[in-house]
Amino acid sequence: MRRPTLEAVAARAGVSRATASRVVNGQTTVAPDIRDAVLRAIDELGYLPNPAARSLVTQRTDSVALVVSEPPTRVFSEDPMFATAIRSASVELEAADKQVVLMLASSAKSHARVERYIAGGHVDGVMLISMHGADPLPTALSRLRVPVVSYGRPAVPIDIPYVDNDNIGGAESAVRHLVESGRRRIATIAGPQDMIGGQDRLTGYRNILRDSDRRSIVAVGDFTRESGAVAMRQLLGDDPGLDAVFVANDLMAVGALQSLRLAGRRVPDDVAVVGFDDIEAAKYTEPPLTTVRHPVAEQAAAMVQLLLDLFTGGSAEPVILPTELVVRESA
């Protein structure tokens, strides 16, 4: 059975092909009674628009690229941040009748592939997640004249609208809590220093220690549980007398708790631990983890809204979401 054509819809509705096309493409310059006749003909014939032809007319694909600058092993891992952000962005785009195209870009080859795809006009806009300092995509995509927004402040000095959370303020609240509870030798397991989140949370830690006349004790991880365990062992070797640690994300904090337990250190009696993110697992660690709530889902939803605003000529001002200290038994 042949697929119904736009010409058949126009004939059934008693209008010209051009009028039927305007209705199909959502234009508002058609009289209500004529629009109803065309929609009725579409329903009766079971007409489905040709996406490629419709894109030529509307200059829209109704698709948005969600580009994650990480390898598959990281995106599809135990870190719930990626799943939460992708799910939230997808739900928001679906509500706006947009299709999400997930693209991973962690190598020069994949960067080139993403750039070619977007330059080919396959999407109406781009959302960037988990960018690292040397990531070439922000600069490359800014030259393509396609709307681009970032999940987090870009690590390179480029004028791209972004949605971030208050990483510095959140880290400050965590370390201030440790200071006010009487902890004297407060270490940190910082995140990757080629990422804004890692840099800002380290800055927040240092701000509070500087103001409280305490010295910094720093190890660096990569936001994975294993790196948190390794960094905690390093900190205990460097300063066996430390009595608190602020960890730049909850997954690393889970690893740190394991290393403290194996070293015979009691939490929080001997060493207090505070994480960052408030992932679901933070409620079920032993002991339950004090942490800073990072509104991942809300940040992803706000990123989508920022991009949709750009489509209609709206504001490109950065959005910063607040964080919140969640006190549990580990500190």
Automatic annotation (TrEMBL):
Keywords: DNA-binding, Transcription, Transcription regulation
Keyword Transcription attached: yes
InterPro entries per UniProt: HTH_LacI, LacI/GalR-like_sensor
GO molecular function: DNA binding
Residue runs in coiled coils: none
Residues in HTH lacI-type domain copies: 4-58
Name used for this protein in its record: LacI family DNA-binding transcriptional regulator
Source organism of the structure: Nonomuraea guangzhouensis
